[in-house]
Amino acid sequence: MSGDHSPDSDEGLGTRLRAELPRYAAPTSLRAAVTPGGAPAPRRAAWLSPVLAAAATALVLGLVFLLAGPRIVPADPTERLVRSVVAEHTRALMWGARRPEVIPTALPWLTQESGIGLRQVFAGDDRLQFSGAEPVYLEGHRGIALHYRDADGHLLTYVVLPISGLPVPDRRRVQIERGTSRWRPALMHDSGFSAWVWRQGEVACFLVSDMVSEDDVERFKDYFVRVRASTDPVPAN
User: Domains of the chain (ranges plus CATH)?
Assistant: First the structure.
């Protein structure tokens, strides 16, 4: 029966053992050793690690998006062109010209492919060495790019695009004089590079390099004069 408490039953035996067996208190040192090891871990540990992992993942993804995501395209057409020219210069700086053609040998082919004729061209001197020419396609326009290097290894990219009436920002114009000649190109900057921007007849011209410091600007002016005074680009007929 469930209510049987006779000495022979299990419940009766348990009662006699609890009543007759002596009990001893556990030593303090044993309690201290057993209690921390047997205590359950704080509940927050169960969810804190996944939360931290998720936060770290979100941070990494955010950094990747910022670094690899598309850059904001400038609304100003001249700034867009400068950005495209700088990107082309950066590509040539890293990988070299696609086809470093020689002038004047390849001039007829370059004119046909670029839509730009060069009635006169700067072929280099004791300060700037010509390193190649190639056709380019920027912002929907065919054009030509000429590359030069100076004695310090700076790459300069001279780009001509058949764009008449390109707006050159007056607030960025710099007056440059050499003898009886006087020019007022705009000095613009993008992604750590400097670019001279000017109109020459019916074409737009750009000269890009990494010369951004105040000391470099004077030398960059000199390079502009050498290229500008000796080059006469026109749209090819």
Answer: 10-68 (no CATH), 77-235 (3.40.1000)
